[in-house]
Amino acid sequence: MIVGAGPRAVGLLERLAANAAELLPADRPLRIHLVDPYPPGGGRIWRHAQSPLLRMNSMAADVTMFTDEASTVEGPIRPGPSLAEWARRPEEFEPYRPVADPAVRDELRTLAPTDFPTRRAQSAYLDWTLRRAVAALPAHVTVTTHRDTARSVTGPADGRQLVRLTDRVLAADQVVLALGHLGSVPKSDPTAEFASRHGLFHLPPAFSTDADLSGVAAGQHLIVRGLGLAFVDLVALLTEGRGGRFEQTPDGLVYHPSGREPVIHAGSRRGVPYHSKTGYRLQGPPPPLPRYFGPSALDALPAGRGELELRRDLWPLMAKETGFGHYHELFHAHPERTTLPWAEFLARYDRLDWYSPGLTRLVAEAVPDPADRLDFEALDRPLAGLRLDSAEQLQHHLRGYLTADADRRADPAHSADLGAFLALLSVYTQLPGVVAAGRLTVRSVAEELDGWWTGFFSFLASGPPGFRLRQLLALAEAGVLRFLGADVRIGTDEATGTFTATSPTVPGHTVHATALIDGYLPRPALTGTEDGLLRELHWAGEAAEEVLRDPTHTHPSGLLAVSPADGRILDPTLGGTPHPRRTALGPHTSNRSYAAFARPRTDAPAFRQNDAAARSLLRALAGPARERAQPGAAGRAGAPAAAARSAPRP
């Protein structure tokens, strides 16, 4: 049984289909149950029923659900179309079924590889991927979907598991929790208590699709804490989603308010929105990755547990790898802006450490324009040290920053940025092995991996489409959006009954507002998860939060502790060993796979994790000790049979 029927469950089902011929004997019938209250395929986050204003933050050509020649999975590689390839000719890919929504059909018909699709278009792709995975299963494997919520799972480690739904109980030999991104039950929060006491609007971290924004009034001053993807979605819903419209004019994009928008004051630690995705492809040949941060380089590092620091030991290699991607593209696509032959530059680059003065001199010699050089410190903290005299000066500065950033990300002359992005993705795919082996110190995991690196990677590599920055700029020029600066501090003022926001970027300036939104996604929190099944497992002592310890640090990550090898849940009642019948996959687990989808030819960690889990499950299900369900064991009293629907085998 798979609890959750979103992208992670679909990916696991695809890997089960790919591995079944090898690992599941033809005389072993297998019944797979998918349980999710939301439509299978898209699940909660990617369901069709959401605003058409919400977009993916990846181009259509950069989204795939299928392994390819770059994948290092143990099981068979089964290539399939990217979203862009499928959208171009959906009727050519079996099993074909016309997309029901005319608006989505029209979008798919005109979708270019470099377009950023709506989430509803991705929902259609996921629906097809699920049906393809089902169709690829052997004849002795069936799939049944249940539009229901799994409430609990019980059963001994050496016996069948009983999964309680709303009004039935299903028996299973293996249970997989593919729950996706999870919210948390709100804790006692002084900010929420202040809001309640003064009748103010406060929205804690939430998923934009599900957020109730009706309590934010027209013209109300609203503080949004966070400038990432959730912020971008929330702004779209509060502006264009309330009837405002954007118009392209000869002087740029202009926003025409509807009069129903709030006045949005936004800030964060960096004080600027995430860098947008580039709107072009590489202009030169792809960089051969990895070069400095691959398996051989990682094997050469100290191999003991808890010996490595990410910033001290790994980051110089990670940075050099990213720099290699950047300069490979610059030298090959824009050689007129360099002064050395690539072969000479690379030979010297190979010999130098990232932080060595020699590398600084080499780059200065070979790349005359500082704008063509890779400066991580400037990228990471663009407002560091900036002090302005007024809030209006800050608005002017940020409008200039947004303009320059949007222009650069749309200009193929700066395609070296895309080379760096691709190398950064390569780095991302290599890190799980280091983490799984426990080679980082606990402090480094807490402060550097789960802290700095996660934020830095998202800031550089997980930004919105370029047109979103243009829209933010238009909103800023219309006075609907105002920026607060870096290192924003949110407070409360009992005398005025308002929230306050201050930033050292504009010393002495305070913004007062009667609404506050924490504009970022909920952080993992097993102890307070909103998922009832996971919460019950934790309360029963059969699931544990990942808590890393060493002599100097303790780090409770909030993640569900699972085996790095195959995602088996580590059960405290079994001495912390992997449960033989329970598996969990996804961003709520200690295997730390945050990306929902893979970019083609990047050996995505999710593929490797899904494949390992699928093979482990199939081996267990094919074993001689496998118990058989008794007739009627999966039923429940008085339930109509139509409540559980078999997924069609096209």
Description:
The chain is an alpha/beta fold. It has 3 domains: 2-182 and 580-646, FAD/NAD(P)-binding domain; 197-274 and 465-518, FAD/NAD(P)-binding domain (3-Layer(bba) Sandwich), CATH 3.50.50.60; 295-385 and 401-461, no CATH class. Helix content is 34%, strand content 15%. It is built from 17 helices and 22 strands. The chain has helices at residues 7-23, 83-88, 102-110, 119-136, 190-198, 229-238, 295-299, 310-333, 342-351, 357-366, 376-380, 391-410, 416-436, 442-461, 466-477, 532-539, 605-622; strands spanning 2-3, 30-35, 141-146, 152-154, 161-164, 169-172, 175-177, 201-203, 221-225, 245-249, 252-256, 263-267, 481-483, 489-493, 498-502, 510-513, 515-518, 545-549, 554-560, 568-571, 577-584, 644-646. The strands form 6 sheets. Strands 20-21-7-1-2-3-22 form a 7-stranded mixed beta sheet, covered by helices on one side. A hairpin with a 4-residue loop joins strand 18 (545-549) and strand 19. The longest helix has 24 residues, at 310-333. Pfam families: NAD_binding_9. This is FAD/NAD(P)-binding protein. Residues 2-181 form the FAD-dependent urate hydroxylase HpyO/Asp monooxygenase CreE-like FAD/NAD(P)-binding domain.
